[in-house]
């Protein structure tokens, strides 16, 4: 029986996943506020919950995954003013840039990517209902949620209203009744983008947008709501207050929050000069290695970025690729042998048992709150066993396929794209030159001209090409 356990921020404990509908999951993950490119801290959140979605689908669930774009916000307005551009142009450009970087990281598009500006009528209706139900009030064109009207306010962040009130202050420009009350609708300032509403021209507050997009695209109750730990309060706390006040029942069954990402042991901050944009990182590191690094710790735990950690991620991806290349090369050589008897090529029980045990190892750790760190360890166990199998005297093509498919299957679940295949029909002129040099080296070795063979190896090494001499012949690949 399939049993997935996940840590629920609401209860502070791991719980068995029980969905609203059998084998279906309504999953909402907070997306970016599109005023700039996203940084590696954002990237961790996007990669983590893309992986959670992939794993749920791997385990047989039909997942409706919604990730929003906050495309109306003070930061977008400020950015547009800095650039002397239209607010919509700025938001649209950074939405396009999000997709470019997300695609590079192997992040799949959501089932729906709603924009806040596409939901203005629903937002106005939602706010009007909160006012009618006594949970919100209007002050001079602004509308605020009355936190005292929701008895459970603070239940996600495990704070009392008194504790929260002590940490808030009302600014001169605010007209709210209590420091913890928050804006649902903001009256327009001169020159700002606005929409007409019953309370005058203005725009929605940040928190109301996600409540409305959840309801519009997933329904009044969802299975999983996810985001970074920094969103627990006030954003997610306020979403709960709004949604449960309007609908009168549980908003989300499970709340997932990923841990922080530090840079060299310190919190990422522009003031410290350690702010890393994902685009910049992707220009100097392989996307697969970046994704590997972001999954290298269990998602709730802090993750520390260092150049050494990225080097290790690069080396890990290379190790996996090398194993897959060795398997493919051995299989191709084996199938070319005249004595190879394909009818006898079956997967023996002892080999299949090892393959199945690694797959079970992977699902066991991923079923336990999506532990990608141990999931990666399972992949390397498959690599280790496959390499051990390659050294055996009796090797069968079908068993090589079994190991290869297992490794590729687990990589796909984690969204790790590796580079293994070289299509000879579309090989570049450089590849053809390398093939020629490899052939010359082989001829030199046959003639026992080892000095010339070593010269060719060194020349190829300077190009970043690794030569491997195996019992089945010489093969090459780029580091």
UniProtKB/TrEMBL annotation:
Family of the protein in this entry: Belongs to the class-I aminoacyl-tRNA synthetase family.
InterPro entries from the UniProt entry: Cys-tRNA-ligase, Cys-tRNA-synt_Ia_DALR, Cys-tRNA/MSH_ligase, CysS_C, Rossmann-like_a/b/a_fold, tRNA-synt_1_cat_dom, tRNAsynth_Ia_anticodon-bd
Position of sequence motif 'HIGH' region: 32-42
Enzyme class: ligase
Co-factor note (free text): Binds 1 zinc ion per subunit.
PANTHER family reported for this sequence: CYSTEINE--TRNA LIGASE, CYTOPLASMIC, CYSTEINYL-TRNA SYNTHETASE
Gene field: cysS
Main location: cytoplasm
Cofactor: Zn(2+)
MF term (GO), any: cysteine-tRNA ligase activity
Annotated Cysteinyl-tRNA synthetase class Ia DALR domain residues: 361-420
Name of the protein: Cysteine--tRNA ligase
Protein EC: 6.1.1.16
């Amino acid at each position: 029986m399939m049993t997935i356990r996940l840590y629920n921020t609401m209860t502070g404990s791991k719980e068995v996943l029980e969905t609203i509908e059998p084998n279906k999951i309504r999953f909402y993950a907070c997306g970016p506020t599109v005023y700039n490119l996203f940084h590696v801290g954002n990237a961790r959140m996007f990669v983590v919950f893309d992986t959670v979605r992939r794993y749920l689908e791997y385990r047989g669930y039909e997942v409706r995954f919604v990730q929003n774009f906050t495309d109306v916000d003070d930061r977008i307005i400020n950015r547009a003013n800095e650039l002397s551009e239209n607010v919509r142009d700025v938001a649209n450009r950074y939405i396009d840039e999000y997709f470019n970087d997300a695609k590079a990281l192997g992040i799949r598009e959501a089932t729906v990517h709603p924009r806040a500006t596409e939901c203005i009528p629903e937002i106005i209706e939602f706010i009007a209902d909160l006012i009618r139900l006594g949970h919100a009030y209007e002050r001079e064109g602004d509308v605020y949620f009355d936190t005292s009207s929701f008895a459970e306010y603070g239940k996600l962040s495990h704070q009392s209203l008194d504790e929260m009130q002590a940490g808030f202050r009302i600014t001169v420009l605010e007209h709210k009744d209590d420091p913890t009350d928050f804006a649902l609708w903001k009256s327009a300032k001169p020159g700002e983008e606005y929409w007409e509403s019953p309370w005058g021209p203005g725009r929605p507050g940040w928190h109301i947008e996600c409540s409305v997009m959840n309801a519009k695209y997933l329904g009044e109750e969802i299975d999983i709501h996810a985001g970074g730990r920094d969103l627990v309060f006030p954003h997610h706390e306020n979403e709960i207050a709004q949604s449960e006040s309007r609908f009168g029942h549980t908003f989300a069954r499970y709340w997932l929050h990923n841990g922080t990402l530090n840079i060299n042991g310190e919190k990422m901050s522009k003031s410290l000069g350690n702010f890393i944009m994902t685009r910049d990182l992707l220009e100097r590191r392989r996307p697969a290695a970046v994704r590997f690094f972001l999954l290298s710790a269990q998602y709730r735990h802090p993750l520390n970025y260092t150049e050494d950690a990225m080097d290790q991620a690069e080396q890990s991806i290379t190790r996996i690729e090398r194993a897959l290349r060795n398997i493919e090369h051995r299989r191709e050589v084996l199938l070319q042998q005249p004595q190879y008897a394909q009818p006898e090529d079956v997967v023996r029980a002892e080999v299949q048992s090892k393959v199945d045990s690694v797959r079970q190892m992977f699902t066991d750790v991923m079923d336990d709150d999506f532990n990608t760190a141990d999931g990666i360890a399972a992949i390397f166990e498959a690599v280790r066993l496959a390499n051990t199998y390659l050294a055996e005297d009796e090797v069968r093509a079908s068993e090589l396929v079994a190991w290869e498919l297992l490794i590729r299957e687990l990589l796909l679940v984690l969204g790790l794209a590796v580079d293994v295949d070289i299509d000879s029909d579309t090989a570049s002129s450089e590849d053809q030159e390398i093939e020629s040099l490899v052939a010359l080296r082989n001829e030199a070795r046959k003639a026992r001209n080892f000095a010339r063979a070593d010269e060719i190896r060194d020349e190829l090494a300077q190009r970043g090409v690794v030569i491997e001499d195996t019992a089945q012949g010489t093969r090459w690949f780029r580091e």
